[in-house]
Write a structure and sequence with these properties.
Number of domains of chain A: 2
Helix content of chain A: 40-55%
Strand content of chain A: 15-25%
Radius of gyration of chain A: 22 Å
Shape of chain A: elongated
Number of helices of chain A: 15
CATH class of the largest domain in chain A: Alpha Beta
Oligomer: homodimer
Strand order of the largest sheet of chain A: 2-3-1-4
CATH topology of the largest domain in chain A: TIM Barrel
Chain lengths: 366, 366
């Protein structure tokens, strides 16, 4: 039989109906038609999905393992998502819980091209936890964002990313903003000696994102950010392949709205598609992810399968300076601590506050 | 003040906390940082989102209206989704319920380029409900899919679409399949005299989808299908603009997994981005959409705003011949009835069964 891989769904059901429901998912995610209408033997044996396991998890929830034929994915990342959850996403009794990605697909999609070790190498930081902040608010002209970028750089941060709201708006066009911010970070780096990385956010369609990535590269940058659930997995894959020198940071915009377990989608699938680093809503901030979800997500990102590189987890969304020790204790040192809005509250003392933050991360990483 | 548009969220909350929660959404979907840290007056007055209304819907659910600045969208369809739901998608107490799309954005995105009237014109069918079926299962070689396409065409269908599982797999490469199926449909049309349309499904990244759309055009086809939630809104917009002669059919793959009301996402936003026709899970089939959701979705697609064209609703997912009258009575005649798997159950009698279907639609459309 040709290669299959196992997709695990959590399904609400009863002992009486779960077998039929599982068989329904197996058909929906493969041939999507009555089996009685299929005459081709190869399709029946090789393409139709198969129920591999049903486990009662209690409380009316079952873990259902479905074997899908790798051949149905073709070579496309979007089709991969389509095959594992496309139509079944329309059934609200189902969560996509896990995918045992086969080596055929890890080789096809390639995973992080750089990962934690290369990010550490670029920053000459073999050990301590990493630091980051964000340029915001959108609406500021590029020169104001650049001033902020310089202040933050002078505070000694490792990474400064565009807020995900910064796109290519009238008030700060991409090229102008990236050029101004890259220059500002370079000025800051000259004064600190620390090789802070600026991460612009790519938006638009593939043509536009490709042009933006080229702008970033021409400005001497080696990191970019994108939102896989907004641009699509296929777009992401194209960019990851075309810009091999770039480290890709994945933003979770729109990722929470899907009934896909975050530890799978953000922790496992974003890295599979080439994310060197994944930003996610850390527990205890503005978003509701549990400690357990955050721990599993970070573990998935850092301990991938089939020889893929490790991706850097970035808990974000309401982090504060006071939580530095707690966050490092929880996630460990292969983590970027990202404080955005809360650093900006320091207003004119932004550089000093940033220094406090970077110092705290250094201290607690010992 | 610069232009704003209203986004409506349904939020689970209490009378005591809903105002703070609404303000939280207004900030999250605009500047995403503490307002106290913003010094720029323009940003505070023009960019920060505003709470416009809070209505208690009962049962612990509130309708919250937030005014967002149109300027934050820039010119990009992906950024539009990012602005209306990006980070808030990460909060599971919120559903995106509606968007009052302003004229600036309807003009920018353009809506259906053809819509119902042009589809009717192409088919020379001013009145009756429209019919469709799907080529499946995936796994069949292209020549078998083509034989099926000819049988279905000889049954007098209006539209024959690729199943959304058909991508560019080893067992039926896109070009070969589309070429074979287009020729088969042409043979069928020659015998029936009815101008049946074949709708290939586009997959991959923008470059690949663009090449596929060009193949379709070169085969003389004027309809294609794509899944907006897989390829991304920005990709869809690029294709809609580049292939003005093509009518675009939107497939709902991955659209159910998002906490966005289907009548908004499929009924309103897919057409806004250029879908001439929207396929959705009809009530009473394999999927769980209610009659009310289906009615609202179809109404949104057909009665758009700001002078956009009407998009053709296509209830699907488990339709049967026996339900023809019921479906036409419920949705009216500006509807395509799509029966996929259930027609295929007729096996060698597929053409006759298809004729029964097309005749029934004609009869009940009187």
């Amino acid at each position: 039989m040709s290669e299959r891989f196992t997709v695990t769904y959590h399904v609400r059901g009863t002992a009486a109906n779960i077998e039929a429901r599982a068989q329904g998912i197996a058909v929906e995610q493969s041939v999507e038609m009555p089996l009685a209408a299929i005459r081709n033997e190869m399709v029946l044996s090789e393409i139709v999905g198969s129920v591999e396991s049903i486990d009662d998890l209690g409380n009316g929830v079952f873990a259902v393992g479905i074997g899908l034929a790798t051949a149905t994915v073709g070579q496309d990342a979007g089709q991969f998502l389509n095959m594992v959850f496309g139509n079944t996403s329309l059934h609200d009794d189902v969560i996509l819980k896990d995918v045992a990605v086969p080596q055929t697909l890890t080789q096809l999609f390639g995973g992080p091209r750089h990962g934690i070790s290369e990010l550490r190498f670029r920053l000459k930081l073999p050990e301590r936890a990493l630091t980051g902040s964000a340029l915001k608010p959108q609406g500021l002209p590029s020169e104001d964002l650049a001033i902020l970028a310089e202040h933050l750089t002078r505070g000694g941060l490792d990474f400064i990313k565009d807020d995900h709201g910064l796109a290519d708006q009238q008030y700060s066009r991409f090229s102008e903003r990236v050029s101004a911010c890259a220059a500002a970070v370079t000025r800051g780096v000259r004064s600190t000696g620390h090789p802070t990385r600026y991460i612009p956010s790519l938006t638009g369609n593939l043509d536009q994102m490709r042009a933006q990535a080229a702008v970033a590269r021409d400005e001497g940058l080696d990191c970019v950010m994108l939102a896989p659930m907004v641009c699509g997995f296929s777009t992401m894959q194209a960019l990851v392949c075309e810009f091999p020198e770039m480290a890709f940071f994945a933003h979770p915009s729109m990722a929470g709205a899907v009934r896909i377990a975050p530890e799978l989608l953000i922790g496992k699938l974003f890295p599979l598609m080439g994310a060197d680093s994944v930003i996610f809503p850390g527990y205890g901030g503005r978003f509701g992810y549990s400690r357990e979800t955050c721990r599993d997500l970070a573990a998935n990102a850092r301990h991938p399968y089939s020889g893929l590189k490790s991706a850097l987890p970035v808990p974000a969304g309401g982090m504060t300076l006071e939580r530095t020790k707690e966050i490092i204790d929880f996630y460990g040192k292969d983590t970027m601590l990202l404080i955005g809005g809360n650093l900006l509250l320091a207003r004119e003392d932004i550089t000093k506050e940033t220094e406090r933050f970077t110092r705290a991360v250094g201290d607690f990483s010992l």
